[in-house]
Amino acid sequence: MNRSAVAEAAVQDLKTRISGQVLRPGDEGYDHSRRVFNAMMDRSPALILRCARPEDVIHGVDFARERGLDLSIKGGGHSVAGNAVCEVGLMLDMSGMKSIHVDPARRIAVAESGLTLGEFDAATQAHGLATTLGVVSMTGIAGLTLGGGIGWLNGKYGLACDNLLSVDVVTADGQLRTAAPDQHDDLFWALRGGGGNFGVVVSFTYQLHPVVTVLGGGVSYPPNAAHEALRRYHEFASTCPDELSTVASIGRSSDGEPVVSVAVCWCGPLDEGERVVRPLRELGPPIADEIQPMPYLTIQSAPDAGFPLGRQHYWKASFLKDLPDQAIETILRFAAEIPSPYTGIGLQQMSGVASRVDSAATAFAHRARQYDFLILSQWDDPADSPTNIAWTRSLFEAMSPFLERGVYVNDLGEEGEDRVRAAYGGNYERLARVKAKYDPANLFRLNHNVRPTNESRGE
To answer: How far is CA 304 from CA 125, 136, 161, 268, 301, in A?
Structure first.
């Protein structure tokens, strides 16, 4: 398909049917709309439909399906894989759909899919409420939630997808459906961890929880204590209560030494939290200690400055359950050779409630007390890409003996079908059957794609 294949008359007809905008290359706003977090991705859709209401989404899905166009969906545009933007086809830009209604009495929020985490959190925190979302406020709620959604509150309240009560979604036939435990329950199951495979979500209904002030922030340890800090951190994280979530980060100092930091979020009583985190403060001792009571909004936006638009990104990730000395030595050896000052290695804890949900209860299959092990490489100059990518791959290969096969789909780049299957784990075949029911022609394929059963079997 090329740009000339979309007849002008069809484009003009689409414009008359929608409340949003249709943008083409050269139009004002086109380049801004197609821009995503990862500057390595530079794709140019033939058409961008900036949706303003659910009916726009329906018209966009019908338009792409009827003309055989590639179709991509952009929410926050924060995915490292850049699947939000197609080359040449039709992109649905959901970022203008930002309505949110909070019912504080029922502790429920109905949120449109164009919202970012920061926008959602601001609306719910006005009522002293929150739900599990990610850890960078510019991230879109849609992709984060559909992939599972690991965040600071996962130990106490589960993943983002565990807090979904219902989802309004436009499926491949152009129908707006409500998926919930008592309506299209198979679709509801699939949307909680199955990514963007099943339709275009226009709104989510979340369960909220009372969260206002948390004990948050981090501690950093001297380079000569890096190995001991990671060993003791693993012991600490393996037994901490549900109210505490942690992330260990490993970077390189200006003089080339590995530096270990541990960030925390305690969402229980503050005096109890001070007692629980004391071992982290006594380890070392730390060279910096910034753990203190803070508004939940503060910890939710704390990493933002480290992820500006315009950088090149290449990530590798898998789940990690144990952290033996050999794994620690490997991490620290590679950390001392990090080629970019912006790159880090993360161990984001998944524990508590999120780890105890049955692996078949939602499409997110990886239920265990474990870390999301993420090599988050970022750099400015495209000319430095070969060096940074090679380092990332080498570390991932060296860590492979310690890693689980599974991977958090929201961390996954373009890594082939085997890795996609690993992302959905034991739920892949069930997802493929749901896909065959709601998207048999695989219209929603520009994602970490689950092929419909008939396609995957070659029928």
So the answer is: 18, 6, 23, 24, 5
Cα separation, 107 vs 113, whole angstroms: 19
Nearest to 292 by CA among 212, 213, 221, 230: 213
Q: Is residue 289 within 8 Å of residue 219, measured between CB atoms? A: yes
- Least Cα distance to 301 among 154, 151, 137, 140 occurs for 137
Angle (CA) 400 402 404, round 5°: 80
Q: Which residues pair with 101 in a beta bridge?
A: 110
pLDDT score of 459 more than 60 = no
Domains of the chain with CATH codes? 3-93 (3.30.43.10), 100-210 (3.30.465.10), 213-411 (3.40.462.20)
Q: Which helix (H) or strand (E) holds 273?
A: helix 270-282
Is 52:20 a contact under the CB 8 Å cutoff?
A: yes
- Show Cβ contacts of residue 459 under 8 Å, excluding neighbours closer than 6 positions: none
- What CA–CA distance (Å, rounded) separates 110 from 207? 9
**pLDDT tens digits along 408-421:** 999 999 999 999 99
pTM, full prediction: 0.95
- Average pLDDT, stretch 110-120? 98
The yes-or-no verdict on residue 52 having pLDDT over 70 is: yes
How far, rounded to the nearest angstrom, does the alpha carbon of residue 412 sit from its chain's CA centroid?
A: 9
pLDDT 10s digits, 246-292: 999 999 998 889 999 999 999 999 999 999 999 999 887 899 999 99
Q: By three-state DSSP, how is residue 361 classified?
A: coil
Helix (H, G, I), strand (E, B) or coil at 150: coil
- Tell me whether strands 88-93 and 71-74 are parallel, antiparallel or unpaired: parallel
